[in-house]
Backbone:
């Protein structure tokens, strides 16, 4: 008799030598598959079949995962080695009839005709095309219904799949599209196999009409063809820019994203390091690096660059954005403007099949502000401003603003030939939220008049006879015209808008929205030139941190326009004109550039003696000053806002419509939940401390 102790009990048996070795071998297997067996001194231990896996050779492993884990891993394995596609859906045609193919794509909405017949559209990988799948649940020669028929009827819409089958002819349907996808209308696929590659939640509603929140951007992209098309359009436009510039011997060079903090004008994003008190700054633009390249023997540079600015957000602003950046050595602003005009014309020709007129119009900053109240006017809107302050009666001046001797702008907008309709429009606008900023304007509320021949002096009696006659002739008034006055403080123009400039756009937008006037069409380009080199600084603009009460209108590296402007630097810097130029289309500033200061001595003079920056801040530019000293040639460049460019080309109101994953109005990415709060460990690693 021999006692043999098993994992679950001790059994008493009579045995031969052969039986002994069999029992011993089984016992050894149990010890190798149940690791805790030895530690338990062979006490009772429940051994379940699922805890012992099949093995080959001497490899034995204990599997502790629950059954549901094994199921999901097996499901993943089934999609892991999916068959490659033999054909793209868009290429299917009658020449493929009778061929066995494998297609990849997404299932559409299934239509079950009966238990034995189903039709399912299969959308292509890019969701642009669809082909019909026909699944037949008829028993084969062995008496079995094809497994694929049950599979496809169990899958939800939007499931990614690989399918095999035979291409067959079909009667074309009455429609050419399925939603936003183009139908392959002359053939269909008879299903033989289907391999689901992932699940799509049954409780998730996703249709073309669904409005997704910002945190579901992936679903919005998947259901909105216009968004996907915009991203493709953007990619193609970037290719054209690269091809065009390379053909002109520009070299594409990547500049660093981890830069240093320098007071160029906008607030920066800082990147702390693990060295106490040290941080990088993300670049507001590659401005300083590209100037360094000009001193490095690179004749023509360009880059589609990522830039970062911590500033208030609007429809055309993002905290991170893309710009087409270029610089030319031994060049002035004129060469840069000609280069950019050629590039823009090429883009419009190749992407939109539009021939732009040549050359683009040029308007000085002073004229743009005086005639349109904006440094980025939309010339398609024919509502020019006229200065009339000197001609107004004193009592009228006192009623339209608090200033003693203001500048007063006047303009007209034709709403309707019937003055009553114009009056209704004015009343509706002034009662709307859009009018609130103009009613609380510190320069005074606008003066509103309607040209009406049935009224004394055609409704202009407040102006007096002579001024009314001047206004009538200057504005070429017609019955029903809306006439608007707006006062402002007299003095040189600063900033991007006057009060009347903003009111002009608001009134026009409201008139278009109400259907009184048609929306402007086409593309109107112009260059805005002759900006002031400096503007008075204010509390909201960080500027360059100097004590002179001035800040650079654009950045402190911009050159004066003429020798006369250079002479004004010591005595009258606010009168200095910059060799700066903005490219504007349809009221949108697409980009701006300038000739740069290539002399280290003049650059340091501007920083120290004109802006009166402290020595510590001048030291932040020491690297650039040293580079300029090393024989840097004259150079000029421009940066084109690539997001804005694509939005204008596609007629989009916001740059968010041409960016894959834009930030919200608060600078947040709601999909990935950024920015996120720093942990105590991160604060400690980077020597940071939160303060109230």
Residues:
């Amino acid at each position: 008799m021999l006692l043999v102790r098993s994992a679950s009990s001790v059994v008493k048996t009579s045995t031969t030598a052969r039986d002994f070795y069999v029992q011993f071998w089984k016992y050894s297997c149990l010890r190798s598959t149940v690791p805790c067996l030895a530690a338990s001194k062979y006490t009772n231990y429940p051994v379940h079949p699922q805890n012992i896996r099949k093995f080959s050779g001497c490899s034995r492993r204990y599997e502790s995962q629950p059954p549901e884990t094994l199921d999901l891993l097996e499901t993943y394995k089934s999609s892991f080695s999916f068959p490659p596609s033999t054909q793209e859906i868009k290429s299917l045609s009658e020449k493929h009839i009778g061929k066995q193919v494998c297609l990849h794509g997404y299932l559409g909405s299934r239509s079950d005709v009966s238990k034995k017949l189903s039709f399912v559209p299969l959308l292509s990988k890019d969701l642009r095309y669809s082909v019909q799948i026909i699944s037949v649940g008829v028993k084969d020669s062995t008496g079995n219904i094809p497994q694929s028929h049950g599979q496809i009827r169990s899958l939800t819409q939007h499931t990614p799949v690989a399918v095999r089958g035979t291409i067959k002819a079909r009667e074309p349907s009455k429609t050419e599209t399925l939603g936003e996808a183009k139908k392959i209308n002359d053939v269909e696929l008879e299903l033989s196999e289907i391999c689901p590659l992932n699940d799509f939640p049954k409780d998730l509603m996703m249709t073309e009409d669904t409005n997704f929140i910002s945190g579901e951007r992936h679903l919005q992209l998947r259901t909105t063809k216009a968004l996907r098309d915009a991203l493709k359009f953007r990619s193609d436009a970037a290719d054209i820019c690269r091809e065009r510039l390379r053909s002109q011997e520009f070299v594409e060079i990547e500049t660093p994203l981890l830069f240093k903090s320098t007071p160029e004008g906008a607030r920066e994003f800082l990147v702390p390091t693990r060295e106490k008190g040290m941080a990088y700054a993300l670049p507001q633009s590659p401005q300083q690096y590209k100037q360094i390249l000009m001193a490095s023997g690179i004749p023509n540079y360009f880059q589609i660059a990522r830039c970062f600015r911590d500033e208030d957000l609007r429809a055309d602003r993002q905290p991170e954005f893309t710009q087409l950046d270029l610089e030319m050595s031994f060049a002035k602003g004129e060469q840069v403007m000609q280069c950019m005009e050629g590039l823009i014309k090429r883009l419009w020709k190749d992407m939109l099949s539009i021939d732009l007129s040549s050359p683009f119009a040029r308007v000085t900053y002073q004229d743009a502000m005086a005639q349109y109240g904006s440094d980025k006017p939309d010339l398609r809107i024919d509502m020019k401003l006229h200065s009339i302050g000197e001609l107004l009666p004193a009592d009228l001046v006192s009623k339209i603003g608090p200033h003693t001797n203001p500048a007063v702008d006047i303009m007209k907008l034709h709403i309707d030939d019937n003055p009553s309709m114009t009056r209704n429009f004015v009343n509706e606008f002034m009662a709307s939220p859009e009018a609130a900023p103009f009613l609380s304007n510190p320069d005074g509320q606008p003066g509103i008049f309607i040209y009406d021949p049935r009224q004394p002096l055609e409704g202009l009696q407040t102006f007096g006879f002579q001024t009314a006659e001047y206004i009538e002739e200057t504005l070429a008034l017609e019955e029903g015209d809306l006439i608007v006055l707006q006062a402002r403080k007299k003095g040189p123009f600063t900033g991007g808008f006057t009060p009347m400039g903003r009111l002009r756009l608001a009134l026009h937008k409201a008139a278009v929205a109400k259907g009184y006037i048609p929306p402007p069409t086409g593309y109107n380009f112009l260059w805005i030139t002759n900006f002031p080199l400096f503007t008075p600084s204010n509390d909201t603009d960080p500027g360059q941190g100097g004590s002179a009460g001035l800040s650079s209108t654009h950045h402190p590296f911009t050159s004066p326009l003429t020798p006369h402007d250079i002479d004004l630097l010591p005595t009258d810097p606010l009168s200095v004109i910059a060799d700066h130029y903005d490219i504007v289309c349809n009221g949108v500033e697409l980009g701006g550039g300038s000739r740069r200061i290539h002399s280290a001595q003049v650059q340091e003079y501007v920083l120290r003696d004109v802006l009166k920056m402290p020595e510590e801040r001048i030291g932040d530019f020491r690297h650039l000053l040293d580079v300029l000293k090393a024989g840097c040639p004259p150079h000029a460049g421009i940066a084109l806002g690539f997001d804005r460019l694509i939005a204008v080309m596609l007629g989009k109101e916001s740059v968010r419509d041409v960016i894959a994953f834009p930030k919200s109005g608060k600078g947040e990415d709601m999909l990935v939940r950024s920015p996120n709060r720093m942990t105590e460990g991160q604060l400690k690693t980077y020597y940071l401390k939160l303060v109230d």
